[in-house]
Amino acid sequence: MLARHSYYLILFLLILSGCKHQAELPLPHAFPRIEFPKGEVKSVDQNYCPLKFDFPTYGTVVQEESFFDEKPSDPCWFTIQIPALNASIHCSYGPIDQNKTYQKYIDDEYNLLSKHNIKAEYREETKLHNQHGVKGMSFEIDGPVASPYQFYLTDSTRHFFRAALYFNSRVNSDSTKPVLEFLKKDLRNMESSFEWK
């Protein structure tokens, strides 16, 4: 009788060990592989703008015809579309005059930047000065923000230019970081080659 109980106990333990099932661990999120575009660097020199700069040919310049259903304040408003990276660089230009002073442009720049403060984790500001005498400031904003890189360029007396990089997708700084790093070198080249006509 004891042998019979031992037999059932061993059988039960064997069945129980055979049913052992490991809990599945969730896999980390995967991001699609990014194919970075290649393009020859060329001068961007639009006849409707008093400026020029270098940018790779993978970006297409499109003049803006409307801004929130209104005509832009100057014909030199354009977007550099980068479909291969689902990104765009929104650019605007304005003359410095009695209607809009240099200080008003600077105040507007910082007001636009402050809209990112809710989600921004950190903002790095860098003074710009290139070989053509163009000065300005770049802003690299860390965190889940709509525009992680922006800059303005000016001569502080006649011209003011602003550019902001946007990704045309849901904001996720982890997945856009490699693309941002790739585009930063072209944005910095844009800043260093920039000149007034």
Pick out the low-confidence regions.
none
Report the mean per-residue pLDDT as an integer. 87
Gross morphology is elongated
Strand order of the largest sheet: 3-4-5-9-8-7-6
DSSP helix fraction: 25-40%
- As a whole number of angstroms, the C-alpha radius of gyration is 27 Å
> For the report, how would you describe the main beta sheet?
7 strands, antiparallel
Structural class: alpha+beta
Helix-strand topology string: HEEEEEHEEEEHE
Q: Quaternary status of these chains? A: single chain
Explain how this protein is built.
A hairpin with a 5-residue loop joins strand 6 and strand 7 (about 135-140). With about 200 residues, the protein is an alpha+beta fold. The model has no long low-confidence stretch (mean pLDDT about 85). The protein has helices at about 1-20, 100-115, 175-195, and strands at about 40-45, 50-55, 60-65, 80, 85-95, 120-130, 135-140, 150-155, 160-165, 195. It has a 7-stranded antiparallel beta sheet, with helices on both faces. Strands 1-2-10 form a 3-stranded antiparallel beta sheet. The chain has 3 helices and 10 strands; from the N terminus they run H-E-E-E-E-E-H-E-E-E-E-H-E.
Keywords summarizing the entry:
alpha+beta; 10 strands; 197 residues; single chain; 7-stranded antiparallel β-sheet; 31% strand; 3 helices; 26% helix; 3-stranded antiparallel β-sheet
